[in-house]
Write a structure and sequence with these properties.
The protein is built from 14 helices and 23 strands. With 416 residues, the protein is of the alpha+beta class. Helix 1 packs parallel to helix 2, helix 5 runs parallel beside helix 6 and helix 8 runs parallel beside helix 12. The structure holds uridine-diphosphate-N-acetylglucosamine (UD1).
Amino acid sequence: MNDIQILGSLPLYGEQRVQGSKNAVLPMMAASLLHKGTTVLENVPQIEDVSCMVRILEKLGASIQRDGHRMEIDAANLDSCEISLDYVRKMRSSIMVLGPLLARLGQAVTYYPGGCSIGKRPVDYHVKLLRDLGIAVEEKDGRIEARAGRYEGTQLWLAFPSVGATENAIMAAVGAQGETVIRGCAREPEIVELCLFLAGMGIETVGAGTDTIRVRGQESGKSPVYRVCGDRIAAGTYLAAAAVTGGEICLNDAPTAYMKTILEVLCACGCQVMAEGSRISLKAPARLRAVPYLETAVYPGFPTDMQSIFLALLCLARGNSVIQENIFEGRFETAAELNRMGAKVRVEGRKAHITGVQSLKGAEVTARDLRGGAALVVAGLAAQGTTTIHDCEHVYRGYEEIVKDLQSLGARIEKH
Ligand code: UD1
């Protein structure tokens, strides 16, 4: 059942709920290890990456109950500090468990994730920040072993505003004595959400959403109950799907405040977009307009996770567009698949030059990564004829019900 088949060219119409955010919930699940008790998360997306994080936490000794979108994590008794290589291979963000494990148990063992199809994805920033906190980290044959005695709060600097490294540093700093000041932080919404979640645990931080975050080392005093915000990338994917098919949709539970740049680009393409509270409505134009230059950047810039999806969208826009990928070096693999569908994309290093075409045609294509797979779904919805996308396990890592959701918006799409 890892193929998706789409009979394209049907405009999407209707209303759809946006799933909970993958990138917000994963660090919260990791952070639940900081609390010697129960954590409740609501609006948890039912996706493969969440299931993988559940297995990681269970291996460490936590017990987890899931009931639909509600998850209860009891981390009162942890009995292991090792994340096995299998899980690290499945999900690179397993590295996020390092910080909370060190704060809670003073020890953590994990492995190098290795490269993936979107680029090298090293973890050197994570390791450096832990060392700068006074934690001993040994790296040998792909194994990372970290041991913390009593460590003092200090000043930390990120050479680049990495999302995961910022999150790891915040969680590790909870275990320090006194205050840690982290400078050069990523400002992504998921970091703001993590800090709001930590506040529910009684852990105060100051500055989330800016480049300087202060964390006072402390024990968690409260059992948090937290509702995960909507997924800005899933929301952007559905809006792009409506835009390329000439449709008109309305999304509920969307994190509109976190989506300004994405919505601006959709407007620049000629879509009529209205955002009010947690609702976004989009009406596509008769023909999308090209965007002369679009570059990915750290928040509040255009997110790299939306890049492949907008690559697909701009293939159908009138005129020439250029997308520059500044975050991950290898994130244009989907271009070749789109070209099989009749797109005209030429990749030169970190730039994709796109000449918009009137229509795409259905083809057999392969999902290379999560967002690249979603981009092919978007392209397939607009294409004439049938598109079969292989290896869609990548897509299910991040989208809860992409097939059902699109069906309910009128798409002819099926799992195979
Ligand atoms: C998170 C998101 C991912 C998103 C990315 C950038 C999660 C679970 N994943 O990933 O969906 O695409 O942010 O918005 O939240 N880097 C290093 N060394 C490190 C860490 C990162 O060189 O130790 C580099 C990466 O290779 C990349 C850049 O820094 O080029 C940004 O990566 P980072 O922000 O860390 O991404 P993630 O946290 O892994």
